[in-house]
Amino acid sequence: xxxxxxxxxxxxxxxxxxxxxxxxxxxxxxxxxxxxxxxxxxxxxxxxxxxxxxxxxxxxxxxxxxxxxxxxxxxxxxxxxxxxxxxxxxxxxxxxxxxxxxxxxxxxxxxxxxxxxxxxxxxxxxxxxxxxxxxxxxxxxxxxxxxxxxxxxxxxxxxxxxxxxxxxxxxxxxxxxxxxxxxxxxxxxxxxxxxxxxxxxxxxxxxxxxxxxxxxxxxxxxxxxxxxxxxxxxxxxxxxxxxxxxxxxxxxxxxxxxxxxxxxxxxxxxxxxxxxxxxxxxxxxxxxxxxxxxxxxxxxxxxxxxxxxxxxxxxxxxxxxxxxxxxxxxxxxxxxxxxxxxxxxxxxxxxxxxxxxxxxxxxxxxxxxxxxxxxxxxxxxxxxxxxxxxxxxxxxxxxxxxxxxxxxxxxxxxxxxxxxx
Length: 421
What we know:
- This protein has 11 helices and 14 strands.
- With 421 residues, the protein is α+β, with helices and mostly antiparallel strands.
- It has 4 domains: 7-55, no CATH class; 71-122, no CATH class; 146-303, Nucleotidyltransferase, domain 5 (2-Layer Sandwich), CATH 3.30.420; 318-408, no CATH class.
- The strands form 4 sheets. It has a 5-stranded mixed beta sheet, sandwiched between helices. A 4-stranded antiparallel beta sheet has the order 6-9-10-11, with no helix packed on it. A 3-stranded mixed beta sheet has the order 7-8-12, with no helix packed on it.
- Strand 13 and strand 14 form a beta hairpin.
- Helix 4 (71-86) crosses helix 5 (93-102).
- The termini are far apart.
């Protein structure tokens, strides 16, 4: 394609005398900063029936237009997004594409939908937001490997406050049970968890924050929920104080739930609120593709793999739950059945030492501090944010023992199995 050059230069090329004196073309091209090949291309264009047409710059548009989204498809995508937002749901490209498929349309790609929304002014670009790829996401490898519980306060239009409790599976994000309670109390916590266990079986671990209604181990007590979980063979764990990111999946779930409820006001009664929460859970689990699950619904992800199994025997209830030693304290209860906490810093090789045991965690964890809960049978390790890292059996021999905390292994069938130490 002939480069874009001024019309005056094109006209001078067309009117250039022929035959030209020796070296005249070269001097002309140097003066106007064009190549000799361009000079003769313009002369060739002027050799046709209409020499004056060569004086106008040629269009640089491609001969064949790239595939463009049809205006009617754009209109459908925008309409679906507006309806999702009006109903209280996320209106991102993944949700819109799933809705278009359900309606019989072939949706554009996720990136194309994002450009359509931006071009039509229905979203505001936020380049300052931290990219998703920069987050380190921790997910338990199997359904029922760990459940999360948290409460969300919600104010009715009558002014009364209620607490919405939701049990969520860490692996699949599926909502296992929901309950609207008067407040965040231990009775409601045990009720919602018992319903979830009755429907789905018990998990291996149960993660909560340090609310007195949920987990009191860090303050030296034991909640009714912890006692109930231990009787079911489930190990209760909690995040570090002032670290809500440990329960980030439940926090994000509540953000979506609040958006849905605000779109359905007025809400005047507890019964009405419970009905809306149940409707939300059903749609969230079975209809709404989840971005963290590669477009799967939580229900599909929950059923895709075998469930993790808890201990066959209920865990013993400790006589006392010992809080972590504070700086300056030198004594600790020596009750043989007590569950105890300690902090250990990994050495330069990624190994920590506790209970006469050297546990290799990995060189990538060198110099990091870990929270360790141990009793007569097991040593359980959590990172600085309170996230479960792994568990090894506590040795019975008085001799020093070495353990390696290996990641879970993947079998040929794709199922994950815990490694042995």
